[in-house]
Amino acid sequence: MHAPWFAHYDEGVPRTLAPYPNRTLIDYLADWSRDHPNQPALLFKGAAIGYGALDRLSDACAAAFASLGVKRGDRVALLLPNCPQFQIAQFGAWKIGAIVAPLNPIYTERELEGPLREHGIETMVTLTRFYRRVKQVQPRTPIRRVIAT
Question: According to a count of CB atoms within 10 Å of the terminal CB, is the N or C end of the chain lower?
């Protein structure tokens, strides 16, 4: 494989991280939740959410997705900024085998329509402040479920 970027690597930087572990981020979250439940996993506006809480909250989110009919292989859009809800929803979706589609929360209605239609996204998680924009675009997209947080 010709990889010209290797010429710019510092001396001693490996060209690969192989062998890659046969584990997912969900596996690592479960480990940290078990071994370090109170260790901060997320810091947001001066508050901390521990690994145990993140694991439990994402389990609850996964159960909520499943109860709404989201299943393995479905796409779940996250129209969220960098906030705890993003990580909770992301892990929740992964735990049921859904595919996470992060969308830029400053997208206009027109910019949202393309990825929602092209990827057949039926479920969206968003902040209440973006809810009106999502509801405006919903009739022109496959979106069936909107979860506001």
Answer: N
